[in-house]
Amino acid sequence: MFSKLGLKAGLLSLLIFLIFIGTWSLATYHKEAPAVSAADAEYAAMMGKGAGKTGGFPPPSEVGAAFVTYLSDPFYDKGPNDKGIGIQLAHSLWRVGLGFFLAVIVAIPLGFAIGMSPLLFQALNPFIQILKPISPLAWMPLALYSLKDSDVSGIFVIFICSLWPMLINTAFGVAAVRRDWINVARTLEVKPLRKAFQVILPAAAPTILTGMRISMGIAWLVIVAAEMLVGGTGVGYFVWNEWNNLALPNVIFAVAMIGLVGMVLDQLFGSLQKLVTYRE
Amino acid sequence: MTQHFLSVEGLQKVYPAADGKPNPPVFDNIHFGIERGEFVCIIGHSGCGKTTILNVLAGLEEASSGVVIMDGKEVKGPSLDRGVVFQSHALMPWMTVLGNVAFAAKSRWPEWSKAKIDEHCTTYLEMVGLGHAIHKKPAELSGGMKQRVGIARAFAIEPKMLLLDEPFGALDALTRGTIQDELLKVVQATSQTVFMITHDVDEAILLADKVILMSNGPLAKIAEIVEITMPRNRTRAEMHHDPQFYRIRNHLVDFLVNRSKSYAGSDAAVLHDARHPPVVRPGLAADEPPPSDSTRPILKQVVNQ
Ligand SMILES: Nc1ncnc2c1ncn2[C@@H]1O[C@H](COP(=O)(O)OP(=O)(O)OP(=O)(O)O)[C@@H](O)[C@H]1O
Ligand SMILES: [Mg+2]
Question: Across the strands, what pairs with B162?
């Protein structure tokens, strides 16, 4: 029953993909003389290079070729402007991982404190409300100025954008732990640390992990933009660099990789979430 | 006055109203005592403050005035000396059945080894008939089984006193009966002191040594204390053959249906001495005219200490 549905869905997905590729092929099919539109030609001339690489929007075959080239050797390193996609992704993942980890270290204990103490909640709430809606990239100039290092600034931006969902979810999850469970712990005279780790943490874990999953999603969105801004390394820089080269097939390839890695990250947190979710 | 194992003196609880003005007290000037090894049930209409009283006894809530003294010490907060069985079982769903009970036992005896804790807890789980389910998660249990785990958890810490808030309220009649039997067995085996809230008159008669009747709130009072004079070895299956049963039952039902509402203005209230609420033994009363005549307050069997 299920596998039948799965099979059907799989076939349908395949069909949609083929239609997509087909439409794309048709739309980018080169006529005898590639009719570069006036604007394109002008733009290409203005950019001074790459005119040979672009004949309008690349057809699937060119993009496929880019996939093959890059995936066949993902870890080559030929100088600052030419690294394999694996290396670039590793740079991005490293920044995201570090920024996210720092955010976890701050958000979970602080969220715990806020969730446990109505006083702290009231006192910190205005700050959280003002800081939360700020686009993480808006911090970039301040970060660059005060941290004086583009790599560290990128990590800081990831830290800032991961912080809020985790902080808010942790505080909310901790504050919403069932009264009954707290009362059980109270009647058993459970010590504060044991209560935090054995009652409140497991009770709030599903909410906390939801916050972490949201944070990770945002962090992965933001890292691409941040790397476009600060340059150097990373998958965002790769996209920007290939755009400057007008190598659109490479850009499309990188975009697909960003989506793929984002999906894997999300599923990772999805399964972590499943692990801590309890049925009542 | 003799020294009770647990004595409640002048208990009052006021909840502030939403607009900040003082509400009338939920209950006022509550006095009663419980002896060691006694099983006391409290009955009263919804909202009269039973849960509040139990929470004060547990130390989970503070009374507005009055004191609770247990075993010579004032109750000032929750303590391992008083095991609580919550109405909604309150099991932690991320722990197994054994884990839940072991969590309690570990709180009581932090120095015990895991093996010793597990063995101790298994004994109590077997006592409530759950020996086969110790490694299940609460979500895999029926409502009655969950409640039994809650009872095992409270017993496992071997408290001086057990507090139960309508432990069987959410169960169907059949399951309820089985667990009542189980509770009765365990209580008799351990001669636990128990304070229990119930809405079920038959349950109170089966389990209790005495039943505290509360009038309706606000300003609820202990209207009277009914001693259950039937032999202690009564069983659910046999007890309604005892002529006392119906006298007691009628007395309790009559209170709940007729007298609890109008209690505030009745003669009984005027004669009422909050420190020594009337103690009655309807089971021992000879058959008499139904208590619906005008001399309603039944003060004939008062046997105050
Ligand atoms: N936290 C609270 N704030 C304000 N009023 C409360 C609060 N808790 C209880 N009350 C009030 O106190 C009264 C007694 O409540 P309590 O829960 O003790 O009743 P109960 O006798 O246990 O009722 P039931 O049989 O329905 O469980 C009720 O009128 C209720 O509205
Ligand atoms: Mg109640």
Answer: B83, B194
Distances (CA, A) of A219 to A152, A164, A171, A222, A241: 15, 11, 20, 5, 21
Of B78, B88, B157, the CB nearest to A180: B88
- Cβ-Cβ pairs closer than 8 A, A with B, add up to 60
Task: For chain B, list the strands marked E by DSSP.
Answer: 6-13, 27-34, 39-43, 65-70, 73-74, 82-85, 161-165, 193-197, 210-214, 222-227, 279-280
Q: Kindly state whether A279 is in contact with chain B, defined as any CB-CB distance less than 8 angstroms.
A: yes
Distance from CA of B299 to the nearest CA of A (A): 39
Q: What atom of ligand 1 comes closest to residue B87's alpha carbon?
A: 27
The closest ligand to the CA of B42 turns out to be: 1
Question: Which CATH superfamily groups domain A85-279?
Answer: MetI-like (1.10.3720.10)
Q: What is the ipTM of this complex?
A: 0.84
Chain B touched by A181 (CB under 8 Å): yes
pLDDT, tens digit (0-9, with 9 covering 90-100), for A103-162 = 999 999 999 999 999 999 999 999 999 999 999 999 999 999 999 888 899 999 999 999
pLDDT, tens digit, for every residue of B67-78?
Answer: 999 998 999 999
Residue B153 Cβ inside 6 Å of ligand 1? The answer reads no
Instruction: Please classify residue B110 by burial: count the beta carbons closer than 10 Å to its beta carbon, then call 0-12 exposed, 13-18 middle and 19+ buried.
Output: exposed
**Closest residue in chain A to residue B78, using alpha carbons only:** A187
| Residue B88 identity (one-letter amino acid) | S
Cα–Cα dist B156/B83, whole Å: 9
Determine whether the shortest distance from the Cβ of B26 to ligand 1 is under 6 A. Answer: yes
pLDDT digits (tens, 9 = 90+) for B231-246: 888 888 888 888 888 8
Instruction: Give φ, ψ of A135 to 5 degrees.
Output: -60, 130
Dihedral pair phi/psi, residue B199, rounded to 5°: -110, 0
Joined together, the tokens standing for residue B205 give 């008669």
On whether the CB atoms of residues B15 and B47 are closer than 8 A, the answer is no
Atom of ligand 1 nearest to the CA of B199: 25
Instruction: Give the nearest chain A residue to B150 (CA atoms).
Output: A184
Which residue ranges form the domains of chain B, and what is each CATH number? 1-81+160-173+188-305 (3.40.50.300), 92-158 (no CATH)
The response to whether residue B48 sits with its C-beta less than 6 Å from ligand 1 reads: yes
Whole-model pTM: value is 0.83
Q: For each of chain A's 280 residues, which pLDDT tens digit applies?
A: 668 899 999 999 999 999 999 999 998 886 544 445 555 555 555 554 443 444 578 888 888 988 888 888 888 888 877 888 899 999 999 999 999 999 999 999 999 999 999 999 999 999 999 999 999 999 999 999 999 888 899 999 999 999 999 999 999 999 999 999 999 999 999 999 999 999 999 999 999 999 999 999 999 999 999 999 887 889 999 999 989 888 899 999 999 999 999 999 999 999 999 999 998 8
What distance in Å separates residue A185's CA from the closest CA in chain B?
8
B51 CB under 6 A from ligand 1? yes
Whether B22 is in the pocket of ligand 1, judged by its Cβ within 6 Å, is no
CA of B40 to the centre of ligand 1 (A): 20
Whether B86 sits inside 8 A of A183 (CB atoms) is yes
Q: Can you give the residue ranges of every domain in chain A?
A: 85-279
